[in-house]
Design goal:
With about 725 residues, the protein is mainly α. It is about 60% helix and about 5% strand. The longest helix is centred in the middle third of the chain and has 53 residues.
């Protein structure tokens, strides 16, 4: 295809990392391979998107915590390893073709599959179902491949066969590290999302080969499903809302009100043609056809000067002018719309509230959104317009996305990528496609939000539990230090109180609270114990107290499951201490068991995890940032800039008792915590910044209009 300027054909932009075709393979075979690889990749992406949903539902229904944790761990592993599996699958697929003319491409794979003997029954069933449905189309594809390569091979050696595809998948996931149940689930999903539509791959490959003259006389296999329904669904007339016509009128009035603001921008699109007095304006319908042509050449990555819409339109207008013999230009109203939408997307391209990778994907929707605006000015007056909502919904979900160590290929990035590609490929003038994609994306985002909210709640519960444990620990430490600090006491008693009775106190505080009888009783028992080992002037009183004290001690130590040998040893030593107290002895008798120690320092219990936040002095110069932090709502997104890779996280819990702000990533996993002063200091130093999660279209439009008004003032 002849290329002008910097227009990049879409096919060349699909996978810039694709392998260099091997010279020994026919170009036609490479075309078949690459077309099939694209469908297989999309099937794998759908598989992993739905694997997450399936495992979450199974975790939700799990009968016990062990199974629930198993499924949650599998979800985490798949999120981390899905890119490796997808890439490994396609690598094996490509390598099979690289060796197809040299030796049996599946021989090595088959030998490896012996390790999956326990899954052989499942795989055999999958293969049998594909062959029963699509065996004829696969057989014809095998015959054409043999004709093209001038060599024979059987069905098992066909790189497109279901056995081979299952083998690629099993080999790519051999180091997945999940249990058999999860692997069987993945195999079922592979059948549902990859093998279910394999007839499309076979039919298209056969059509491509037949059209190129490879055994064109073969009678085509009957289609399993009619394609007409899917194609016609793209042309269903848009079901406008009852107020859509009124919204369009309001949109036209809105554009009329902007004529004065947009006037200084005119003449920038195709300036040579716009300035020509003799140039005649093209119709909006013709402009839409030019834009539909251009949207198929939008590159996968848009860098500076990589794809200038004005330059591309000017080239097409020059061609139209040459063909018609009359200079043609864009009508003023249409040029105003082009300029307004161009300013909106310039704002989006520079909006660092969105992650760079997803921002680049959204920017590729420039031409489809421009076409929507030309067709329906209600885009600007109706907040519920499907195209506007789709943009806003994508941006809302994308704000928490971040590039992980495994790269870009997570479910959200792939979903947005598919939406963008679908609009660039299929959108002409029927806005119902936006409605279809919006409904699909809302279903996806709501499922993801439900999953993430569950995990956020788990994080919140864990943090609140941790805060209570820390508070309880501090109360127990205070109670122990009030009674022991600075005193010389028997080592056995000090050891028991610090190591064991502290656990009794913690349990009472956590379960029943500081004002509960259990807490008061545990303190009273400790006080009675300490009093009982002091020299007594009235031994008879001590003898009366001892039975109740011993019972309380035994009950308390049993509640925390203290080792029976240690319990027995302590009570033997306590008996000696009571005998000594009855004797009125002021000093220890010298036995090692009754040795005394001075509690010279504060007791610090190693029971609960300390807060990671170091308290910071709230300095006056941080007052503005502190007020900002104190006003943060749960759900606010923050970007941390102190690491190599920026980290985006959301405020999911505010623990007032310990002044802790807990942040989680998009999946609900805790990633950071601060106290108020620490976050204020990070904001002041530029180590963190708050993200604006307001509606993208509204933010962009408001900013653009404010900028136009400012220019008019100056």
């Amino acid at each position: 295809m002849h290329k002008e300027g910097k227009v990049v054909p879409l096919a060349a932009a699909i996978d810039r990392g694709a392998r260099t075709p091997l010279p020994c393979l026919p170009v036609l075979l490479l075309q078949v391979r690459d077309k099939a690889a694209l469908q297989l990749r999309q099937g794998l992406q759908a598989l992993f998107d739905n694997a997450d949903d399936t495992l979450f539902e199974m975790a939700d229904r799990a009968a016990d915590r062990f199974d629930q944790n198993l499924y949650f761990e599998a979800m985490r592993d798949l999120r981390l390893k899905r890119k490796h599996i997808e890439r490994g699958f396609l690598d094996i697929f490509y390598d099979t073709f690289a060796r197809i003319g040299q030796f049996d491409p599946l021989g090595q794979q088959a030998s490896k599959n012996q390790a999956y003997r326990e899954r052989a029954v499942v795989v055999d069933g999958m293969v049998a179902r594909v062959l029963s449905r699509d065996g004829l189309a696969l057989e014809q594809l095998g015959m054409r491949l043999q004709c093209l390569l001038a060599r024979s091979f059987d069905e098992q050696q066909n790189p497109f066969g279901p056995a081979a595809l299952c083998g690629y998948f099993l080999d790519a996931g051999r180091n997945l590290g999940v249990g058999l149940r999860v692997k069987l689930i993945l195999l079922k999903l592979f059948e549902r999302y990859v093998l279910r539509d394999i007839d499309v791959l076979y039919v298209e490959a056969n059509q491509l080969l037949a059209a190129a003259g490879v055994m064109p006389d073969l009678q085509p296999a009957p289609r399993r499903r009619a394609e007409d329904h899917r194609l016609s669904s793209r042309r269903v007339p848009a079901n406008r809302e009852p107020d859509a016509m009124g919204a369009d009128s309001a949109g036209q009035a809105f554009m009329c009100s902007l004529e004065g603001l947009l006037a200084p921008c005119r003449g920038r699109i195709a300036p040579r043609l716009q300035a020509a007095a003799s140039a005649e304006p093209i119709s909006t319908a013709d402009l839409l056809r030019l834009l539909s042509h251009l949207q198929h050449y939008v590159p996968a990555t848009i860098e500076e000067d990589d794809f200038d819409l004005g330059q591309q339109l000017e080239q097409l207008l020059l061609r139209v002018s040459v063909r018609s013999g009359t200079r043609r230009r864009i009508a003023c109203n249409d040029e105003d719309m082009i300029n307004l939408v161009g300013l909106l997307f310039a704002y989006i391209a520079a909006d660092d509230n969105l992650p760079l990778s997803l921002r680049a994907l959204i920017v590729r929707l420039h031409i489809p959104l421009l076409k929507v605006a030309l067709l329906d000015k209600g885009l600007f007056s109706r907040a519920s317009h499907p195209a506007r909502r789709l943009l806003n919904e994508i941006a809302a979900v994308a704000i928490g996305w971040e590039t992980g160590s495994e790269g870009l290929r997570d479910s959200l990035h792939l979903r947005v990528e598919r939406i963008v590609q679908r609009l660039l490929n299929d959108f002409t003038e029927d806005a119902s496609l936006f409605t279809e994609l919006l409904e699909d994306f809302l279903a996806f985002s709501q499922d993801e939000r439900r999953r993430n909210e569950l995990l956020e709640q788990r994080t919140r519960d864990a943090e609140e539990g941790r805060a209570r444990a820390l508070q309880a620990r501090q109360q127990v430490q205070q109670a122990l230090n009030q009674r022991l600090r600075g005193r010389t006491l028997p080592q056995a008693v000090v050891h028991m109180l610090v190591q064991a009775w502290s656990q009794v106190l913690l349990l009472a505080w956590l379960k029943q609270g500081e004002a509960s009888p259990a807490w008061e009783q545990a303190l009273a028992t400790m006080d009675t114990l300490l009093a009982s080992i002091a020299p007594h002037q009235q031994p008879q009183v001590l003898l009366q107290q001892v039975p109740g004290l011993l019972k309380s001690l035994r009950d308390g130590l049993a509640s925390v499951a203290l080792d029976s040998a240690a319990t027995r040893e302590f009570f033997l030593q306590l008996e000696q201490l009571h005998l000594r107290a009855c004797a009125g002895a002021e000093q220890p008798d010298g036995s090692h068991e009754l040795a005394e120690v001075l509690v010279a320092e504060d007791i610090v219990l190693a029971i609960a995890e300390e807060s990671a936040c170091v308290p910071l002095r709230q300095r006056d110069e941080h007052a503005a940032e502190l007020r900002q932090v104190q006003r943060l709502r749960i759900g606010t997104w923050v970007e941390m800039l102190d690491d190599d890779e920026p980290l985006r996280c959301k405020l999911v819990a505010r623990i007032d008792s310990s002044d802790r702000l807990v942040f989680a990533n998009r999946t609900g996993m805790k990633v950071r915590e601060w106290n108020s002063a620490g976050l204020a200091q990070a904001l002041r130093r530029g180590e963190a910044r708050l993200l604006d999660d307001g509606l993208l279209f509204e933010r962009a439009l408001e900013t653009v209009l404010e900028g136009l008004r400012q220019q008019q003032v100056h």
